[in-house]
Amino acid sequence: MATADNSPTRDFVAGDRQGRARRVMLGLVALLLVTSTLSLGIGASGVSLWSVLGQIARAEAVAPREALILFDIRAPRLALGLLVGAALAVSGAVMQGLFRNPLADPGLVGVGAGAGLGAITAIVLGGLLPLALQDVVGFYLVPLAAFLGGWLTTLFLYRISTSRGRTSVAVMLLGGIALGALAGAVSGVLIYMADDAQLRDLTFWGLGSLAGATWDKVLVAGPLIALVLVVTPFLAQSLNALALGEGPAAHLGIPVQRMKTISILTVAGATGAAVAVSGGIGFVGIVVPHLLRILTGPDHRYLLPNAALLGAALLVGADMIARSVIAPAELPIGIVTATLGGPFFLWILLRNRSLLDL
Amino acid sequence: MLSATDIHADLAGTPILRGVSLTARPGQITMIVGPNGSGKTTLLRALTQDLPYRGRVLLDGADIAALPGWELATRRAVLPQASRIAFPFTVLEIVRLGLIAAATPAPGHRASEALARVGLAGFEGRFYQDLSGGEQQRAQLARVLAQVWDPVGPDGARWLFLDEPVASLDIGHQLEVMEIMADYARAGGGVVAVMHDLNLTAIHADQVLLMQDGRCLAAGPPAAVFTDAILSAAYGCTVRVNATPPAPATFVLPHMARRAG
């Protein structure tokens, strides 16, 4: 006969995926360490990470060329890849939780385009600001504008698709597409107005790439993304409760309105910062959370940190491929994420159709 | 005690509640019945602040509009009518969401205990969206029970607000859920439920509020409210209480059903 089980925790309970989520988290940390090390060691120049580390270990002076490549080219690029990858994946996961829909992705529903419009506006019209203000905001102008653009788009999108506590998926997707198109059109006008120097900036920015990563860019995007990564774990239980709906979440004592505001700011902050420094790399925000939900379930307490880890590892890995396939030239990283992610994503979808109830 | 006074509420500009008052006591089951569109669910939603209302709702003497959400969540739990969930949560994970609100950490087996209580023992590892409608409803009930597990807390009674808790259940599971409500009330908790089934209401309710067109048509114990005249007026058809059909007819009454075991 069944006996009363009074032993606290530890015991295996069916349907409890926390243990698996923790093991996956450890695995992802390992994966991130491996990809990061590889990324530092691989590059068109052929400079070896190990030889530089060896020189440091033997207290020898590092050759200037090798030091330059390692510390001023590869290291900032790695840092930017980690930041952008984590930001894209986490903002995807938070937005999907907020809209209670696995299709909500900042890139898909126009938030990326809104952030892009913000960035383009700053590049083209930034010169019109009073000089004093330009001095104050300095090179934070573009990321700030991208953040503002992303925030306004997310806010607007949530307003139009939610009425009386219900978020309409159809309105969200169609509204997002409309907003994206509108932002694209205004961006087009601005690009048309741009002069030659601005055009060069725009082209460089719009490539959707980690090329041209500098410590300056890391410093621009880093604080905002770090802030987002610190804040999101506090949203986890609220997002879990929100999966039941806004009313039921409120009855569980969740301050729904406040957590929605914070979620929207979070998505806008992470998307804005990522778009400002990388031009918007698609696909990470939707694939990473999906994959993790299938592996370990939708519990945001694990989904959010795991998404940050996997997103970072994925982007660093993709960047490594992007710059080694046709070295010394580079593929835009978006091509790599799409080529790798697309078929993989389809495979997951077909295998787990029943789990992806929309 | 729950006491609502002169509640008004509108939906999209149309008045749905036109001044309803209700009193529910802990230790009793209070049921809200009435024809479709009479405002039953809207009344429950107003009582639980799911929609804006005018009037006053006091829970144990305190105006609920002034209580913080987390405090209310330790004192009352609300079962919505139908719940669709966006992501692939397991049944265990859904029930554990009810524990978010708990004032003190619940023991690890509480979720399984709640599932066993609603007849879903062994369902922990199933995916919520793979359950039938009735099973989903009972899984949600388990979540709600887990939230306010003890019918009486250190600071007073706990409350269950249930919107048609037996709507998509078969007769056996209807009895099971009615028993849960009765046990909760017997142990000192308060239960307020919107009901469709007049027979189950007649058996289990201590107090009935019969609504019609956004107003309270009658209130009191079932025997006083469920009369031929009142029910006929409320539902717009001729109703005869406590009358059996002529001999060859077949009828099944929950009054005569007992749960096995």
From TrEMBL, chain A:
Which BP terms in the Gene Ontology apply to this protein? siderophore-iron import into cell
Record CDD domains: TM_ABC_iron-siderophores_like (cd06550)
Q: Name one Pfam family in it.
A: FecCD
User: Which keywords, in A-to-Z order, does the entry hold?
Assistant: Cell membrane, Membrane, Transmembrane, Transmembrane helix, Transport
Where does this one sit in the cell?
A: Cell membrane
| Gene Ontology molecular function, alphabetical | transmembrane transporter activity
GO cellular component terms attached to this protein's record: plasma membrane
The answer to whether UniProt assigns keyword RNA-binding to this entry is no
Protein's membrane topology: Multi-pass membrane protein
The answer to whether keyword Cell membrane applies is: yes
Listed transmembrane segments: 24-44, 78-99, 111-133, 139-158, 170-194, 218-243, 264-291, 303-322, 329-350
Q: Which InterPro entries match?
A: ABC_BtuC-like, ABC_transptr_permease_BtuC
What's the family? Belongs to the binding-protein-dependent transport system permease family. FecCD subfamily.
Protein name, UniProt field: Iron complex transport system permease protein
Per the UniProt record, the source organism is Roseicyclus mahoneyensis
UniProtKB/TrEMBL annotation, chain B:
* Swiss-Prot/TrEMBL keywords: ATP-binding, Nucleotide-binding, Translocase, Transport
The question of whether Transmembrane is a record keyword is answered with no
Q: Name one Pfam family in it.
A: ABC_tran
Q: Name one GO molecular function term.
A: ATP binding
Q: Which Gene3D superfamilies match?
A: P-loop containing nucleotide triphosphate hydrolases (3.40.50.300)
Q: Report the superkingdom from the record.
A: Bacteria
Key word Repeat present: no
Q: Where is the ABC transporter domain?
A: 2-238
The role this protein plays is: Part of the ABC transporter complex HmuTUV involved in hemin import. Responsible for energy coupling to the transport system.
Q: What is this protein called?
A: Iron complex transport system ATP-binding protein
Traced from the root, the source organism's taxonomic lineage reads:
Bacteria, Pseudomonadati, Pseudomonadota, Alphaproteobacteria, Rhodobacterales
